[in-house]
Amino acid sequence: MAALLKVPPQSSGGTNGSCKADVVVSDQFPAGLRVLVVDDDVTCLKILEQMLRRCLYHVTTCSQATIALNILREKKGCFDIVLSDVHMPDMDGYKLLEHVGLEMDLPVIMMSADGRTSAVMRGIRHGACDYLIKPIREEELKNIWQHVVRKKWNENKEHEHSGSLEDNDRHKRGGEDAEYASSVNEGAEGILKGQKKRRDSKDEDDGELENEDPSTSKKPRVVWSVELHQQFVSAVNQLGIDKAVPKRILELMNVPGLTRENVASHLQKFRLYLKRLSGVAQQQGGIPNSFCGPVEPNVKLGSLGRFDIQALAASGQIPPQTLAALQAELLGRPTSNLVLPAMDQPALLQASLQGPKCIPVEHGVAFGQPLVKCQTNISKHFPPTVVSTEDVPSGFGAWPSNSLGTVGTSGSLGGLSAQNNNILMDMLHQQQQHQQQQQQQAVIPEPSRSINVQPSCLVVPSRTSASFQAGNSPASVNQNCSFNRNAVIDYSLLTPQSNNSSLSVGQISDGDLKNTTVLGGFSAPGSISPSVSSCSVNAGNSTTRPVQNSTVTFGAPRQLPGVVSNICDIQGSYGARSGEVLDQGLLRNLGFVGKGTSIPSRFAVDEPESPISNLNNGKVYGENEGNRVKQEPNLDYMENARVGVPMLPHFTPNDLMSVFSD
Amino acid sequence: MLGLGADRLRADMNRLLALLFHQGVLDEQFLQLQQLQDETSPNFVSEVVNIYFHESEKLLRNLRGLLMDREFSDYKKMGIHLNQFMGSSSSIGAKRVRNVCVAFRAASEQNNRAGCLRALELVEHEYCYLKNKLHELFQLEQQRVLAAGVRYPIQN
Description:
heterodimer, A: mainly alpha, Rossmann fold, 2 domains, 37 helices, disordered N terminus, disordered C terminus, B: mainly alpha, Four Helix Bundle (Hemerythrin (Met), subunit A), 82% helix, elongated
């Protein structure tokens, strides 16, 4: 019950985004829903405005579609839902709908006096979440908030498919370890199975818990598996991207059960993905700064992250690994500013997503209330980190955020195994991979990381594949998660320990949240995750963070006990240390995710410790392992981090990393 | 005495409304409109209806212009206008106008020029009737408010 009640407020809070945070809505949810109404018919506009006011919604009206689109672009995250007329002189309502769906990913309700089936069908095909026939009655408008919630739930679900949040939930609920273990060492097929298993178990869980609503309400949807997506891509290639129309693609794919609508929506996202991809490549140089800004970074990051996510979703467990690999790459190359941007992106994505987008809800699901707060914390940290980091360290700042976002992913990573990574790599090979690789390379210039990079490169393809699928799971958050996972994965490939670490990572995320709460004093901590809570020590950790970073590697992390509890659950063997590490990781994450990334390397070096580091890194720390493997690179990072002394508090993770590397 | 006048005017309004409902000129959507009128927007109904009249006259002019072009009538554009006209008419509860619009649109979709012209005449007629009746209604309303206002300045 509590969860159900929570969701709407959180979602609204999330949508508020950077501007308002989660202040307003919590009590009476639908009230305050921010609605944009677009209709060239002034009469209807006026009536609708009044009706929506009566519903206590916050109404913005606009009589021109082009202006509405500009408003939406300028005020991203300031609207929860769009009501649009179908026939408008300056821009077709369907066109607006497409733009909104692709750029803002907001629920759009179409309205028209034309209630003929063909018109309604067209609206649905273009992605309208509802189609209201004029005259519109107040009762219909009272209910539109459901689309906002439903959309968030669905996104949540997609995130879960990517593995991140779901993992968190499971960890919290306990008893899922077995699943992970089984899935970890399985090949690609095994992974897929594992995913199914997860889903099943998830559904069971849902029956008992708050997730019930989303899962049950969600309609069956096409899962764009790697194979399916490849079929899709090859069909598109055959037709040519410009000439590819859903109908032809569908014919070429010849997959029973697949509908034109499925293909159309996938194609839309695929195109968007390509667009973003090119955008990312262009913007990589300047990325770091942009990351600071929520919107653009999100977009860029989103593309990468989404890809990863998609891949994950498609393969099931795979995505996390690939993500981890990606993250590892990024983390491994922290020294280079370019890399940092990538990291930042995830963080930004998370931050931004949490704010404006629905993300908060998801967090709420996985983490509970604390999530929201964490987000806020993150956002706060970021700006400073970014500023300081700009030279080298900036990247680190971004990392922490990643770690937060990744938490869920880290869990998924845990389940994944080196084998999986390899498998994924193979599966992932796609045309897009090349693109992504290029991008990644651009992002990660540092040579020292090169070793890690290669794995990551392999991983990259997976990303691409993932990204294609991602269309379904666009949430940027997933991306972040994926990054972390990627890092973990790579490491795991390098060393057996990495697997352990990966598990810890999953837990870590929880830990991070908790940590953040403790350290930051954020409200989130207590509620965030049971596993973390067991580690209660965190408060001390928070204070200690900086010190620990500077001084010893492991010891400090261990002190951060909050994480440990998570670790214990997951990795049993790793025990307390890992948990401690996790705590630090959390702290680091809060302060600066980037540091966390370095942690993974540590794991590689000291197996026993590694679990801890994993936990800490959870999100961020996957990198540490990488560092160890590539000790030199890590050292560089560490040094960099240290250089930016003022930054240190944020960078604590880095410090830790450096220590370890030393 | 003035109070009695206000009551009588209210009764007149109700009678007129009942007549319009009975004739099918208005439907329950008009009542929705009335319910939307509150302290924050005391003249909501008349404001909306005036906007509607203003927009409708533009639409009717455009429709007539499109149909008067003997060489080439843009039926697609006509359909878009009619859609808007239908949307706004139904939104204020102008049932008969809307119904004629539906017939008009059907004719335009068949590129039936004669049918369109007939429908246009009908729409114009219905529109004028509605406009006259609603003006009547608003005048009664205005008088009623004045009458009530003199006697009971505090009450509405």
